[in-house]
Write a structure and sequence with these properties.
DUF2846 domain-containing protein, four-stranded mixed sheet, alpha+beta, 3 helices, transmembrane helix, transmembrane, membrane, four-stranded antiparallel sheet
Length: about 140
C-alpha cells in the first residue's frame, strides 16, 4: 500500500465518522443523548428547562434529543404559572464518563433550586435525593 492509499483510507474513515455523527472524539466532545427533567417541587410545574440555553424537555413528560458537551453546565427553568426564571444554585458539571455510551440524561430539579444530573441506558428514575424530598414534602407539606 502506498502513502496515497493510506491518506485515502484515513480520509474515508474521517468522512464516515462525520456522516454518522460521531462527535464524541476529542477535547470538546459532543454527545447526542435523550434528555429530560424531573421536577420535585409540587408547588409549580416547570417549562423551558434548558441545559446551556438549549431546551432539554421534561414538561409534561416530554423528552428531547440534545447535543451535550462535557464540562460545566448552566441549567435554567421557568415556573409555568408565573414565568419566574429559576437557575441551578449549585455548580453542575457533566463528565465524559457520565455521557459515554449512555442513552438518557436527566436533570433533577429540587425544591431548593439545586440540580443533579444523571445518565443511564434505561428509562430515567428518581434519585435518592429526589425521593427524600418527596417524602419530606409528603410529611411536612409543600413549602
Amino acid at each position: 500500500m502506498t502513502l496515497i492509499d493510506h491518506k485515502k483510507g484515513i480520509l474515508i474513515l474521517i468522512l464516515i465518522f462525520e456522516l454518522i455523527g460521531c462527535t464524541s472524539i476529542g477535547a470538546n466532545a459532543t454527545y447526542d443523548i435523550g434528555t429530560t427533567s424531573v421536577n420535585y417541587n409540587p408547588s409549580y410545574n416547570t417549562y423551558d428547562v434548558k441545559l446551556n440555553n438549549h431546551i432539554i424537555g421534561g414538561a409534561i413528560g416530554s423528552m428531547n434529543i440534545s447535543s451535550v458537551k462535557a464540562g460545566p453546565q448552566t441549567v435554567t427553568w421557568k415556573d409555568a404559572k408565573t414565568g419566574e426564571l429559576h437557575s441551578a444554585k449549585n455548580q453542575v458539571i457533566i463528565s465524559r464518563e457520565q455521557l459515554k455510551g449512555m442513552r438518557y440524561l436527566t436533570a433533577h430539579l429540587y425544591p431548593d433550586d439545586t440540580v443533579e444530573i444523571t445518565t443511564s441506558n434505561n428509562w430515567p428514575t428518581p434519585t435518592d435525593k429526589g425521593l427524600k424530598w418527596r417524602e419530606k414534602i409528603k410529611n411536612n407539606g409543600a413549602k
